[in-house]
Amino acid sequence: MGEVRLNPYFRKAARFEYDEAADWYEEQRAGLGQEFVFEVARALARACEAPLQFPLVLRDIRRARVQRFPYSIFFRLRTGQLIVLAVFHARRDPRIWRART
Fold first, then answer.
1. Are 99 and 59 in contact (CB under 8 A)?
2. For position 77, which CATH number holds?
3. Nearest 10 degrees: Cα torsion 82, 49, 87, 37
């Protein structure tokens, strides 16, 4: 019997900051935004396949780090879903994403 893969669901604020970051990277260099999107997708796929491998950082919220970029994906698990609370730059004030919990 195979493992059940979770479906990701982005909260509105998380989708906004993800899109904003991808646009910013694309403005810095053509193609860099796509590279960011790819790395976020890879981290998200890993989280959906095996969410419990990622550390708890606050109550039931876990963090998956994005390779090559200073971003983390903060998420919580719900029945059959991985809820993305934030796609967050490492230098931003963590109180911003914590207020979403």
1. no
2. 3.30.2310.20
3. -130
